[in-house]
Structures are given as C-alpha cells and as structure tokens.
Amino acid sequence: MSEIRNIVILTGAGISAESGLNTFRGPGGLWEGHRVEDICTPEALARNRELVLDFYDQRRAALGTVHPNPAHEALARLDREWRGDLLIVTQNVDDLHERAGAKRLLHMHGELMSALCEQCGHRAGYGGSMLDGTLCGACGTADALRPDIVFFGEMPYEMDRIDTALAQADLFVSIGTSGAVYPAAGFVRSARYHGARTLELNLEPSAGSYDFDERRMGPASVLVPAWVD
Ligand code: BV8
Questions:
Q1: Is the N or C terminus of the chain more exposed, i.e. has fewer CB atoms within 10 Å?
Q2: Where is the active site (predicted)?
C-alpha cells in the first residue's frame, strides 16, 4: 500500500454479523417480521410511534450483549497506526467500532446510543428506553425524543465530509454491505471517478460488486485482519 495515503472505508451490517447482530437483508434479517416501511420511515414513526420506539429500544438494549469482533478490532488498529488520512464511514447504528477503539469514524445513518429531540433538534447520547417519557435535556419537552436514526427519505449525516473524503481517497474499501441503500451504495463509483482503487470485502458479491477493482469473498472477521495486517 506504498502509493496509498488517503483511505475511506465503508462498513455495513455484515461487519457486525459475527458479533451476533442481525443483518437486514439476509436470512433471518432484521426486516423480516417488519416491512421496512412500517419501521424505518418518518411516516411509520408518526403512524405507530410505540412500535418504532420499541423496535429501536430492543436493538439498543441488545448492544449490551454483543462485543466487537476481529474485523472491528483490525480497523481500529489501522486507525491508530495509519499516518495518512483515514475515515471509517459506517452505515451501522451499533457502537462496535467505537468500542473496538476506532476514532476517525462517522455514522452516516445515526446511532442507537443517541437521541434526537423532535421539538428542538438537540442530539445527545442516550442509552435508555424512549417509551418512558424522558424529557429532552435541552428544551425539557417530554415525549419528544426519537431514535437518532436516519430513516428512509431522510438525509444521511455528514454527506459533505464524506464527499470530500471520497474525492481525496487513494483507496476505497467496502466491508459487509449489500449495496442496496443509497447514497452509500454509490460511494464506490464516486471514489473510482476521483481515481481511487476500490476493494470489496464481503461474504457474497454485493449489488455493486462489478464496480470494484478487486473483490474478496468471505467472513469479515477473516478478511479484514488479513487485509489490515
Ligand atoms: C436519502 C436506519 C435523500 C438505521 C437505514 C432509488 C435510487 C436511489 C435511491 C433511492 C431510490 N429509492 C429510494 C431511494 C433512497 C433510499 C434508498 O436507497 N432506498 C433503497 C431501498 C433503494 N435512501 C434513503 O432514503 C436515504 N436517504 O436518500 O435521502 C434526501 C435528499 C435530500 C433531503 C432529504 C433526503 C437514507 C437511507 C438510510 C436508511 N436507514 N437504516 C437502522 O435502522 O439500522 S438503511 C439500513 O440499510 C441500515 O442503515 C443498513 O446499514 C443499510 C444498508 O444495509 P447493509 O448494511 O448493507 O446490510 P444488509 O443486510 O443489506 O447487507 C449485509 C451484507 O453483509 C450482505 O451483503 C451480506 O452478504 C454481508 N455479510 C453478512 N455476514 C457477513 C457479511 N460480510 C462479511 N462478513 C460477514 N460475516
């Protein structure tokens, strides 16, 4: 990796699968039993607030039962040791990258361990249930907290920062994502357009596999440490 200075890494649910967190679109995926339109949209939150808040309460509570796996740990090691620019852009809302020690990280789809106030827009770390009428820490409004999650139809976080990083990347690596959701699924094309080399590490070919210069298929806990080390 001698001629490579700036790296952008995109991760999806597949990097957390071996930690025991369900993926979305595989057998037994999270969305089974729930149509995504019934859960992950502003309309669903307005229509059935308790169902949506409970769905995210359950996923938030499950975080206490899982741990980072060797893939998260390898990326955190790379983050500590890499002297050039590096940005881990995760679509995941779990906190496993942080718990493995990653610092140069952003959650483009939000975080389970964060709450968003629908009254004043305040975002703050939050680990409890959103069904218990907790007050917003900024404006004091009750029952105004929603999951700090980017629903379908909402703008992902920090897109300017991501676009800048993709434009300057020498290497773009996609790990554990099906390439089903935009704008994340388009990042590989943006990176290629700006001259980056592109690598996919995934259990199976993603929807955008043909856009990558190189594809390695297998479990993230094996592929990521092998790539990093
Ligand atoms: C937006 C919330 C605009 C958090 C999520 C047509 C064309 C282009 C776009 C659209 C379109 N129609 C609609 C859109 C827009 C839409 C979209 O892309 N829809 C799709 C379905 C077509 N996108 C949006 O709405 C986005 N916003 O576009 O805003 C805008 C502009 C201006 C102003 C306002 C708005 C917002 C998208 C975010 C939605 N939120 N989740 C949560 O609940 O978790 S998306 C959800 O899918 C998760 O965030 C997840 O991260 C994401 C992607 O899924 P993956 O992570 O890839 O997981 P998946 O299960 O699919 O795949 C897992 C992969 O891992 C598999 O490939 C598997 O093989 C692999 N794997 C499994 N085990 C392992 C493994 N790999 C390695 N090792 C293993 N062990």
A1: C
A2: 109 (proton acceptor)
Q: Residue 35 above 70 pLDDT?
A: yes
Instruction: Evaluate whether the domain defined by 23-65+111-149 bears CATH number 2.40.30.30.
Output: no
- CA–CA distance, 199 with 201 (Å, rounded to integer): 7
Q: Which CATH superfamily is domain 1-21+68-109+155-229 in?
A: TPP-binding domain (3.40.50.1220)
Protein residue closest via CA to atom 75 of ligand 1: 14
pLDDT at 1: 54
Residue 109 annotated as catalytic? yes
Instruction: With cut-offs at 50, 70 and 90, classify the pLDDT of residue 29.
Output: low
Residue 27 or 142, more confident? 142
ipTM confidence: 0.95
Kindly report the pTM of this predicted structure. 0.96
Tell me the CA–centroid distance for residue 30 and ligand 1, in Å. Answer: 12
Token pair 């995109």 is found at: 10
